[in-house]
Design goal:
By secondary structure, the protein is mainly α. Helix content is 68%, strand content 1%. The chain contains 15 helices and two strands. The chain has a two-stranded antiparallel sheet. The protein is globular. It starts with a helix and ends with a helix. Belongs to the binding-protein-dependent transport system permease family. It is found in: Cell membrane.
Length: 355
């Protein structure tokens, strides 16, 4: 059994165990859930082993989060620390700029929607574009990666020849770091000798050969394509495990009922992959929020309105311009976004009794 087979098998067994335990009644005591924290002798004996690590995590993780939030309530700007006033002025400043309207611009010859769009691109606050690009990256990257991963999983599930080879090829990009992926795609996107533009010119599609990482309107698209390439293998593994956990009887019953391949997957198979979709979507959205390394390698700390996201803006604000309070506020907003991604999933898992 190859390494990919072992991964798929573990995910499939986890999904089967999850489904079998989700329907089991929870142990209760007078209507209350039991099985919580046990403070018996075993807990006391284990205390010396986990307490030091727990204290370090509390200090360097949760303590750092609390310190960051405290700094965001001040007006600390420059090398001289300032811990006053304690208010939400930095957050007000950020969201005022996010929702600010750009002023007049010399683009009246364009249709109104395009004039407003390019006017924002030229004169709008960078906060607007950073927030907007983060949300677009979060949604479009996740949806596109799930779709590509599902299609790859369906292809692999057809018992094709060299299945293990293809699965390894599809999953290999995920093992690369953001830095390696960025360097690779920086070469792919090069407008002069990059393989993408060269291939387009070879087949006569010269009008599609653009400056992918230089033109503002293509930067975010280039980022989404590269990240989808890197993480679609993860979606494939999750979906493949889900597909192979579905009994073959359901496929055969759908065919007997006269359902075509597309209808069978849309009506019978894909609805049973909701749990796999949810768990994969959460992981992919977390990856999207952690894409700082990728953007920094390609664009540096100033990617411009076309590709700026909150994590890059936070770094630039805090460490390039020494506006530590404003940078801390942006980091807190990014942290809240991450919680908004993770907490609904944890709540659903808790309701199902998996936590």
């Amino acid at each position: 059994m190859s390494a990919i087979d072992r991964i798929v098998d573990r995910v499939r067994r986890y999904r089967s165990d999850e489904e079998s335990t989700s329907d089991a009644p929870l142990a209760t005591d007078g209507g209350h859930r039991t099985g919580g924290l046990d403070l018996g002798p075993e807990f006391v004996q284990a205390l010396p082993f986990w307490l030091p690590a727990g204290l370090l995590v509390a200090l360097f993780v949760y303590g750092a989060i609390g310190w960051n939030f405290l700094v965001s309530l001040t007006d600390w700007s420059g090398l001289q620390a300032s811990y006053w006033p304690l208010d939400f002025g930095m957050y007000t400043r950020f969201f005022e700029r996010v929702f600010a309207q750009s002023g007049d611009h010399a683009l009246s010859w364009l249709p109104a929607p395009l004039a407003d769009l390019f006017g924002r691109l030229l004169t709008g606050p960078i906060e607007y574009w950073s927030f907007r690009n983060t949300i677009v990256l979060l949604i479009v990257f996740t949806v596109l990666t799930l779709i590509v991963g599902l299609l790859l999983a369906i292809l692999i599930d057809q018992q094709i020849r060299f299945e293990n080879t293809f699965r390894t090829i599809y999953l290999l990009p995920m093992s690369l770091s953001f830095v390696v992926t960025a360097v690779f795609w920086q070469w792919m996107y090069n407008p002069r000798y990059g393989i993408i533009n060269s291939a387009l010119e070879t087949v006569g599609l010269d009008f599609f050969a653009v400056d992918w990482i230089g033109a503002a309107q293509f930067k975010l698209l280039a980022v989404i394509i590269a990240l989808t390439w890197q993480f679609s293998g993860y979606g494939m593994v999750v979906y493949l495990a889900g597909l192979r956990a579905i009994p073959n009887d359901q496929f055969e019953a759908a065919r007997v009922d006269g359902a075509g391949t597309i209808k069978m997957y849309l009506r019978v198979i894909i609805p049973q992959l909701r749990a796999a979709t949810l768990s994969a979507a959460v992981v992919l959205m977390v990856f999207a929020l952690k894409a700082f390394d990728f953007l920094y390698v390609i664009f540096g700390s100033r990617p411009g309105p076309g590709a700026d996201i909150l994590s890059v803006m936070m770094y630039r604000t805090a460490f390039d311009t020494s506006q530590f309070a404003y940078g801390a506020a942006i980091a807190t907003i990014l942290f809240v976004l991450a919680l908004g991604v993770i907490m609904p999933y944890l709540y659903i898992q808790y309701q199902r009794g998996d936590l």
